């Protein structure tokens, strides 16, 4: 059975879902499209949406890979960066656990993100680093106000 989804509506629902703190293995189930629609009202609303990220950076700094780097992940949706549309076609999607609540992002996440970005730069021709809010403004809000870009970029610049 085919289900037609209103991508803008579903994207908004997904953003509300990611603003809510996923618990236990829910975040892994989100990015492997195995959420139980009966477990949470938003899970039912996004049940037909297929999302993925190349990598997830946990609050403790550990990285989990969901999609091989040479394959497309479905993390950005409708997006544009520096005049080029369809960012999923040419980007690596890294999701950060949490950040939407009062806790912000952890020291371990910043350290892990710096380490991960350096490792990616060693094997890929990375030119830019941008947030989902930069490539899909008005539709996506992550990493959000609580992400300290100056801290991340300064640490990334250090050898």
Could you explain how this protein is built, in words?
The chain is mostly helical. The protein has a single domain, classed as Peptidoglycan recognition protein-like (Lysozyme-like), CATH 3.40.80.10. 34% of the residues lie in helices and 8% in strands. It contains 6 helices and 5 strands. The chain has helices at residues 7-19, 26-31, 41-45, 107-123, 132-135, 149-157, and strands at residues 55-57, 63-65, 80-81, 84-85, 94-96. A 3-stranded mixed beta sheet has the order 2-1-5, covered by helices on one side. The protein has a two-stranded antiparallel sheet with strand order 3-4. Helix 4 crosses helix 6. The longest helix is centred in the last third of the chain and has 17 residues, at 107-123.
What count of domains describes the coordinates? Answer: 1
Query: Overall 3D geometry?
Result: globular
> N-to-C terminal Cα separation, in Å?
53 Å
Strand order in the sheet with the most strands: 2-1-5
Which range does the strand content fall in? 5-15%
> How many DSSP helices?
6
Which whole number gives the mean pLDDT? 83
Could you name the ranges where pLDDT drops below 50 across 5 or more consecutive residues?
A: 1-19
What would a concise description of this structure say?
This protein is mainly alpha-helical. It has helices at residues 7-19, 26-31, 41-45, 107-123, 132-135, 149-157; strands at residues 55-57, 63-65, 80-81, 84-85, 94-96.
């Amino acid at each position: 059975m085919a289900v037609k989804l209103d991508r803008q509506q579903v994207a908004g629902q997904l953003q509300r879902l990611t603003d809510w703190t996923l618990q236990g293995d829910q975040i892994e189930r989100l990015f492997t499209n195995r959420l139980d629609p009966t477990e949470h009202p938003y899970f039912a609303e996004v049940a037909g949406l297929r999302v993925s990220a190349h990598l997830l950076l946990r609050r403790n700094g550990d990285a989990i890979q969901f999609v091989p780097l040479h394959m497309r992940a479905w993390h950005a949706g409708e997006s544009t960066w520096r005049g080029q549309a369809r960012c999923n076609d040419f980007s690596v999607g890294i999701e950060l656990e949490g950040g939407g609540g009062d806790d912000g992002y952890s020291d371990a996440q910043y350290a892990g993100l710096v380490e991960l970005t350096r490792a990616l730069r060693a094997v890929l021709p990375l030119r830019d680093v941008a947030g989902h809010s930069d490539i899909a403004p008005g539709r996506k809000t992550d990493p959000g106000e609580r992400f300290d870009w100056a801290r991340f970029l300064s640490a990334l610049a250090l050898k």
